[in-house]
Amino acid sequence: MKRVLHAIEYLIVRALLCLVDVLPVRACIALAHGIGDLVYLLHGPRRRIAVENILRAGLAPDEASAKRLARQSFRHFARVVATSIKSDTWFRKHPPEECMTWKIGPELEAILEDPKQGLILACGHLGSWEIGGQVLSLRKPVVGIARRMNNPYVDRLIQKRKPRHRFELTPKRDANLLRLASALKEGKVLAIMIDQNAKDRGMLVDYFGRPASSHTAIALLHLLTKTPLCVGACMEVAPMKFEFRATGPFRFAPSGNKDADIRRILEHLNGELENAVRATPDQYMWGHRRWRLTPAQLIAAAEA
Amino acid sequence: MSRTEILAKLRALMANAIPVARTDGEEIDWQQVSEGDAIAKLGFDSLAMLDLLYDIQQSFEIELDPRDLAQVTTVGHLVDAIAKHKQA
Question: CB contact, 8 Å: B54 with chain A?
């Protein structure tokens, strides 16, 4: 039964990919908005999570406003998928400098220009993360960690379609952190999504004023390799026009207390990402369970 | 610093990492851990290993290059990596 469902899903995705290929950009975006609206209407649990997250983050004064923002967020996510697929052909016809502007400080510019200097990019489900990785890889090799899709047929299809340049994606399940640390020493950018729920292996750090289980690997990689950190996102400013915005570089000296150091780093990164999300909340994926805690974490959070 | 001293200190660091390392409920007698033991079998996954390497750096006051650690699979390999820095 599962295989049949996967096959049906695959055929739908394949048909959509063909549509995206033949349609002009504006029509693709309109199609994405339609799909986003449809998912928003039909996927009740996901919609409720998004609305609740927005309300609890204090980004909407009432439920009606939260619903409007949630719907924009669903549309944005569909647009991220459509533009990522479209980007392959688009970037062949339009040079990156025509499509991307950079809003980063001179110190970060210097790091990107230095082929020997690695960089840890803390990012989140904000803006167009796929396109951000692609365009960044034109300046410096990028290594990222990605979760495989549940449907293996769709996963293979999407992986085959994604333009890569010097953007290498490691499946989350096989991610060898030591190899990722080596990549930093080879002058690459390591892009890590910091707004994923680390479940029982994470450290509870406030994000939008609520404790969220955060992966500690990014902080450990920084402490271990002394590679500078930055927080960034590729924001969509117009159809197929983007601005890469980043803050940093940040460097943290070890204090002798490992847990306190990790906490300090994660709090700082979460804070920077939160500021970026607050600036453009409609380009954030609100429908994920970022704040879901395990029973043990709920007790720890209540005691803190 | 002798290999025996390095191994003794390393055992203590590994034992401290227990809350992070997953041992599947099996208790490990860290004093019995020898250079031939595979790190993965002691319960160290990728994240726990990173944690341990940071502790090693702090405790031995050395700076490890992750590229030199790509082939590390046993406790003995770790002792080698530390000894190399302590002799240098």
Answer: yes
